[in-house]
Amino acid sequence: MKHLLVAFICAVFTFSTAYAQGAKKKKETVTFFVEGMDCANCVKKIEKNIAFEKGVSDLKCDLTTRTAVVTYRSDKTSKTKLASAFKKIGMEATPVDNGAGCPVNPAKKK
Which of the four pLDDT bands, split at 50, 70 and 90, describes residue 36? Predict the structure, then answer.
């Protein structure tokens, strides 16, 4: 009887571990073109705020291209929610299609 109980407990742990590994949440990465990011303080502002949004697991800002690459859990947040988070800190962020490059800045187009 003890052997049967031990085998049952081992089976429960095995299945629960396998289920937990299969239930890992999907991560997605999006690149935002950030219209208002024009100095090092802007980068710090983004890093201090967006990095701590719910679901965000990684954030990399590039001042020269004015982009922010955000890796997030799709079950916790979305591109739309992240864009809203940028608006909260006073910056306009537009998701960039991978491979399409950054949108043209109308202020610099002449």
Answer: confident
In DSSP terms, which residues pair with 34 in a beta bridge? Answer: 93
Query: Half-sphere exposure of 74 toward its Cβ, with a 13 Å CA cutoff?
Result: 7
Other Cβ atoms less than 10 A from the Cβ of 5: the count is 9
Mean pLDDT of the chain: 81
Yes or no: say if 75 and 13 are a contact pair by the CB < 8 Å rule: no
Beta bridge partner(s), residue 61: 68
Verdict on whether the full-model pTM lies above 0.90: no
Q: How far apart are CA 16 and CA 36, in angstroms?
A: 47
Beta bridge pairs of residue 27: 73
